[in-house]
Amino acid sequence: MIATMKRSTHLSWVLRRELFFRKLGFLTIPQLDPRRCSQVITKLLYLLNQGDSFTKVEATEVFFSVTKLFQSKDLGLRRMVYLIIKELSPSADEVIIVTSSLMKDMNSKTDMYRANAIRVLCRITDGTLLTQIERYLKQAIVDKNPVVASAALVSGIHLLQTNPEIVKRWSNEVQEAVQSRAALVQFHALALLQQIRQNDRLAVSKLVTSLTRGTVRSPLAQCLLIRYTSQVIRESNTQTGDRPFYDFLESCLRHKAEMVIFEAARAITELSGVTSRELTPAITVLQLFLSSSKPVLRFAAVRTLNKVAMTHPMAVTNCNIDMESLISDQNRSIATLAITTLLKTGNESSVDRLMKQITNFMSDIADEFKIVVVEAIRSLCLKFPLKYRSLMNFLSNILREEGGFEYKKAIVDSIVILIRDIPEAKESGLLHLCEFIEDCEFTYLSTQILHFLGIEGPKTTDPSKYIRYIYNRVHLENATVRAAAVSTLAKFGAMVDALKPRIFVLLRRCIFDSDDEVRDRATLYLNTLGGDGEVVETDKDVKIFLFGDLDIPLVNLETSLKNYEPSEESFDIDSVPKEVKSQPLVEKKAPGKKPAGLGAPPAGPPSTVDAYERLLSSIPEFSNFGKLFKSSSPVELTEAETEYAVNVVKHIFDRHVVFQYNCINTIPEQLLENVSVIVDASEAEDFAEVTSKPVRSLPYDTPGQTFVAFEKPDGITAVGKFSNTLRFIVKEVDPSTGEAEEDGVEDEYQLEDLEVVAADYMMKVGVSNFRNAWESMGEDFERVDEYGLGPRESLAEAVSAVINLLGMQPCEGNRGCRSQFKVTHVSTLWCIPRQCEGSCTVAVWN
């Protein structure tokens, strides 16, 4: 690879030397050779497209040499001249030189000259020159020659990014071009017209309404119109059955162009809340495409059906026979999509037949496609738990075949999930994993499986059968796997008292291992498990110490250990923040200005809690509030483009809540003084305001913080709503001197309301083994309650709403639904509440 880069660099250097010292002379000789000049320009374009850049002197030399080629009448050379000028992007001084020639070509009788001159002029000119040629561009848009009209329209699409006001004046001409009979002109005109009106929802709706009556002839333009129609349908927010323009989409399914038919079918399948009745005509069309002779149509159809199967599997079942024939398709992408779609839509009786077909299919595809198939099989097993035996056997068979890390990891993850979700699959699944680590080449997978065996193995009916597989790792693997195997053996000894004597014998052998980590672990477990290998019950505290869940994120623990300075006082693990992850303070930008941190405390550790705690402890009014429990994410109290940008952070203490209002003045001509927030707590009866701290001065674009502290009853989760008003003295600032006037005017600015909810008192904490943690807590800590979530479009959305409502941390990968086919879902959440000494666990069933 390095050799190739060196050759490429050397080639560019040689080519540049040849061009600038020898070949540029060909462009300036009196008798031009069009062929040789074209070859020189081709080499220059090659250098530019390879990422090479010319110096200012080189670019100027090339530009002036190329401008002399306008005297040539050769069409091929003239096209190369247009290309090189467009790529060089000359400076404003140089543009003037070539402008007259380009404007002459723009009014030429040769259509090729006109089209290319328009493209180049619009690329290299600024707004001042653009106004001079605007009249010619308008004429070109409605030109009879489609090449010229398309060139003007495409140039308008590019100019809309830099000079929108000028392009918006062309609406009448563009509207006329939409009615053109030339397919490409109509396509480009529709694209430009929609971009001109894209910020006016009503104008876009009217455009779609007028064009859906049958005035669009170009298939490309028709596809664009279908996309714009789908956008209008999404923004209309109408209920199913009253959906506007659906009849137009359905009529496009009978269009003679295949691209239009597919675009319409795809648009229908992607409609929000689409019903089975609305899907039927689109599915019928896609089914016909499955048997097409064109691979692109087969691929497009099966990919769309694959997406539909995630939300409406029953609607796709009629296509199963056609998709089964695609399993043997020469295009492996088509075959993979067909397999995964069949796995999503198949019924319980067809599982065995599909497994036979997939077995022959897996050896012919790459690992990335295999991973997709494995994930689909996992979803199928969760959908039909009674078929776990055949599906688990299939996963174990492919696990023993050749494959990369990601592929093997996907299989292992699938087996682990099936073991957790299907209790009957635990015994066979664990044995499959044990057989895999006998010949596993990936250290990460071996350690993860050993850890999982240590959690689930002791709970099986015969834990002793796994010991042989685990101890083999101590003799046959590297130090990392050996250390993991020692920990797993110790877990069996701690959890299964009958196995303790045998475990002690094995652990004593590990003391003589060559690796320090393995020896240290074996020594620790031998000294702490107790009983000297006799059949006695392991102490509960020892189990918690050795194998209990660490309720502190490792990132936070690492940060605290790095910041700890050795002293007489030992390290206190209780001082480590227990937030799941540290998020940077949200910054809000004044319009058009550089980012300015809102409420950014002095520089300190990366933990958000540490940063806020340092800021609050530096304020005397809050020094006696005790230890900060939690700080919320910033909540915006103003819109993005308002005069003043304000957000608030809620700081929770034992008996106090402090609101930190982060403010920015976005008006350059104003200085704000004595800035404070007046908080109305009439709808928060449990809170009483105790103190506040205003901002003395708030210059333009400089962040400042004002604080309001409330006292609340100890021992209860106080909630309520607070109304906020920003109060300040505003002084005018002289733009020339930057000095403010002496006299100011008192003013107020209404902010959004703020709520303190139960989730504010919950600190997210990760728990690696939810089931063990749940079982270790007594019934006294359990509470059942009901919450209303309102209507939700999907189960995944409902699960997300529960997580946000309770403010807890999803455990064991339960952040969302794994299967699209579930009608029920169990989420395990964990947190530490403010008014509890222990941890609070919640299991939520929908």
Can you give a write-up of this model?
It is a single chain. This protein is an alpha+beta fold. The strands form 4 sheets. Strands 3, 4, 5, 6, 8 and 10 form a 6-stranded antiparallel beta sheet that branches. Strands 7, 9, 11, 12 and 13 form a 5-stranded antiparallel beta sheet that branches. Strands 14, 15, 16 and 17 form a 4-stranded antiparallel beta sheet that branches. Helix 12 (201-211) packs across helix 13. The chain is globular and about 105 Å long. Mean pLDDT is 79; it is low at 1-11, 581-606, 818-827 and 834-846.
The global form is globular
Tally the beta strands.
17
Radius of gyration: 35 Å
**Helix/strand/pairing category:** alpha+beta
The fraction of residues in strands falls at 5-15%
Helix content: 40-55%
Spans with pLDDT under 50 lasting ≥5 residues? Answer: 1-11, 581-606, 818-827, 834-846
Largest beta-sheet characterization: 6 strands, antiparallel
Gap between N and C termini: 55 Å
Total helical elements? 35
What's the rounded overall pLDDT mean? 79
| Multimer state | single chain
Family: Belongs to the COPG family.
Protein name: Coatomer subunit gamma
Subunit structure: Oligomeric complex.
Subcellular location: Cytoplasm; Golgi apparatus membrane; Cytoplasmic vesicle, COPI-coated vesicle membrane
